[in-house]
Write a structure and sequence with these properties.
This protein is of the alpha/beta class. It has 12 helices and 8 strands. It is globular, with a radius of gyration of 17 Å. The two termini are 28 Å apart. The chain binds phosphoenolpyruvate (PEP). Phosphoenolpyruvate binds next to strand 8.
């Protein structure tokens, strides 16, 4: 039985002082969950502060990007070792905003995934289609290809630890959420391609999240789908109401 995992993507929000206060407010409001792993993926500079703020709780901390080299002349980048030493356990890779604004491709996602795994991080690999691609009916084909390229050279053991987030670009930050059926169909297709690459054991254990305008009122239906193992949550993870997403089965308010 796969445990759900619900991760907040804080994007480029909150300085270290604000991040500490936000993490503490979320903990106090009851963000921990009996049935889901909870992760705050925060700006790199906030990691030490947030790790301190969640100490002693079940909440884990993640970064939002990782470079594929261990060190060197890569101004502005951050290595897996830097993230783990600061206390991060997870890292988001290939978010659509990284693809759109910072030139990430399926190939750089593959390199970053390898570096994250080698560095002992649990990666959250993002895939998903644009509105035009959905309208052209190429969603499944595209997502299958994104997964195949991202996982090139990754062992079965490492693949089983990796989390895949299906994030339709048209649903991110738009308030336009995929229907539970649309999300389930693509998450099932992702599990199928993982099965083709690694066999049914890995396909059964890999966790596949949905992301894109997840909110308190749609979380239970989305996360109740058989192939959806939780969510990657942007905007709604910055508010205390996030506790009602991590506790979607029995909301707290
Ligand atoms: C995201 O940033 O990964 C995301 C899904 O954002 P939002 O929940 O705001 O749509």
């Amino acid at each position: 039985m796969r445990k759900k995992i619900i991760a907040g993507n804080w994007k480029m929000n909150a300085n270290p002082t604000e991040a500490t206060a936000l993490a503490k407010r979320l903990i106090e409001a009851g963000v921990e969950s009996d049935y889901a792993d909870v992760v705050f993926c925060v700006p790199a500079i906030d990691i030490p502060a947030v790790v301190g703020a969640v100490k002693g709780t079940g909440v884990a901390v993640g970064g939002q990007n990782v470079h594929f080299k261990p060190s060197g002349a890569y101004t502005g980048e951050i290595s897996a070792d830097m993230l783990t030493d600061a206390g991060a356990r997870y890292v988001i890779i290939g978010h659509s905003e990284r693809r759109q604004y910072f030139g990430e491709t399926d190939e750089t996602v593959n390199l970053r995934l390898a570096a994250a795994l080698a560095g002992g991080l649990i990666p959250i690999v993002c895939v998903g289609e644009s509105l035009g691609q959905r309208e052209r009916g190429v969603t499944i084909e595209l997502v299958r290809s994104q997964v195949k390229t991202a996982f090139g050279g990754v062992s079965a053991e490492d693949a089983a630890k990796t989390i895949i987030a299906y994030e339709p670009i048209w649903a991110i930050g738009t308030g336009r959420v995929a229907t539970a059926e649309q999300a389930q169909d693509v998450c099932a297709a992702i599990r199928t391609v993982i099965g083709e690459l690694y066999g049914s054991g890995v396909a059964d254990s890999v966790r596949v999240q949905y992301g894109g305008s997840v909110a308190r009122d749609n979380a239970a239906e989305l996360f109740g789908q058989p192939d959806i193992d939780g969510g990657l949550v942007g905007g709604a993870s910055l508010k205390e109401d996030f506790v009602n997403i991590t506790n979607y089965k029995a909301r707290k308010g």
